Amino acid sequence: MITICRPLRYYLPRAQRGDLQRKLSTSPGLARHPSPSAHRWSHPPSSTIISDNDVASLASKSLHALSLADLVKHGRPPLPAPALFSSANFTLSLLPIRLAHRIQALRNLPFIVVSNPNISKIYNNYLHSLSTLLPYNHKTISNLQDEIKFTEVLADLVETHAHTIPTLARGFLECRKYINPTEVTRFLDGHLRARIGTRLIAEQHIALHMSSQPHSPPNPVEEQIPDQSASYIGVIDTALEPASIINSCGNFVSEICELKYGVRPTWIIDGEPDTTFAYVPVHLEYIITELLKNAFRATVESGRGHEPIIITIAAEPESQRGMPTSSTIESASPSGRDPTNPPIRPLQTSTPGVTIRIRDRGGGISPDVLPNIWSYSFTTFSDEDDLPPGSGNMDALNALSGTAGGGSSIAGLGYGLPLGRAYAEYFGGGIAVQSLYGWGSDVYLRLKGLGRLDI
């Protein structure tokens, strides 16, 4: 089987990409935080020893209500050393508390569930990440040596949790007989939304580190080449073009379709394709890729592969009178959002957004599966079902195409649509699906603008 791997782009100047990875490859292993406390019997086995008191103390603290103003308050890169230290200390003030909250949430799962090898691996990953941050917990980062070491810890954290989603998917599939699917959906919604915030905080400082004055000496050769990162503040692109992301994701997904079906679907972008706004490109890439997978697969498998997908971009005007709000979009797809993981706040509450409609002629969604499209993959299996080979299953993606089963790379893990909605809602947006069964589907993605970044 041929598999296409599409690495997430890291939006940094070319000369600086990979610098941190090279440092990591030559750095000695990070010491783990020692503790004399033994784990209680209800904890899954772990090679990382952390005091229960440490976890409980951090988990008892409330989560900081993150806003985009927090992420850009340190200024536009390249940052001077004092601003970079400020960013590092702000990041350090947030992450240990967030990791401790997730450890406690995992411990609250039934013991038979959290002892599953896959879920236990995630649990141990969180313990490991917290152990690497605890040595910094009572110190202030005030010199470049400490800032570099701290950024290496953040890079390790991001890499450690890179495969959380497929690992959790497999773990909960294996444990579906031992826990109520509704409870697991609630847990996953909270856990994966918290993961979005944790990665965003860590990656923001890593990006600022890589593009800041102390770590980016001038390069006359590079300066002669126009740098697309000029519009970036960390991982936030202040002039993001949705049409560019759509075309990039469309090319990727159409290649998968061509390999599997021998058909390469086409798409047409209309509306206002020149629209730009401030957003996190990697987040939008994930959402658009998952939505295009749905539309392309449905179109091809319905026998209408020759009909293009119509993608309309509509930018909201400065005045939002009469325009749909994020609550309007979300009402069509209630998520039971965890109040401990509120969506990130934009810079201004009245910031206009962008709505993207993806329209296909793939036959629509069967009414008997429509209510389940926001559930994670495990909810579609009965206790008598055998685990499917690989990652194929009857999931939200398959529901949109009206098919079940299959282990193709385009089918994914069943987390695509609900996780895509989680990414959209995290910034105050949302996703709504309208199906005309027997004809096709319209998917409305509303992205809340992040506001003007006058820095």
Automatic annotation (TrEMBL):
UniProt cross-references to Pfam families, sorted A to Z: BCDHK_Adom3, HATPase_c
Q: What top-level class of enzyme does the UniProt entry assign?
A: transferase
Return the similarity comment. Answer: Belongs to the PDK/BCKDK protein kinase family.
Q: What is this protein called?
A: Protein-serine/threonine kinase
From which residue to which does the signal peptide run? none
Listed GO biological process terms: regulation of glucose metabolic process
Q: Where is the Histidine kinase domain?
A: 281-451
Q: What is its EC number?
A: 2.7.11.-
Q: Identify the stretch(es) annotated as Disordered.
A: 20-45, 317-363
Q: Name one GO cellular component term.
A: mitochondrial matrix
Domain of life of the native organism: Eukaryota
What Gene Ontology terms describe what this protein does at the molecular function level? Answer: ATP binding; pyruvate dehydrogenase (acetyl-transferring) kinase activity
Species whose genome carries this gene: Amylocarpus encephaloides
Q: Which UniProt keywords apply?
A: ATP-binding, Kinase, Mitochondrion, Nucleotide-binding, Phosphoprotein, Pyruvate, Transferase
InterPro entries the UniProt entry points to? AK/P_DHK_N_sf (IPR036784), BCDHK/PDK_N (IPR018955), BCKD/PDK (IPR039028), HATPase_C_sf (IPR036890), HATPase_dom (IPR003594), His_kinase_dom (IPR005467)
Q: Polar residues bias located where?
A: 322-334
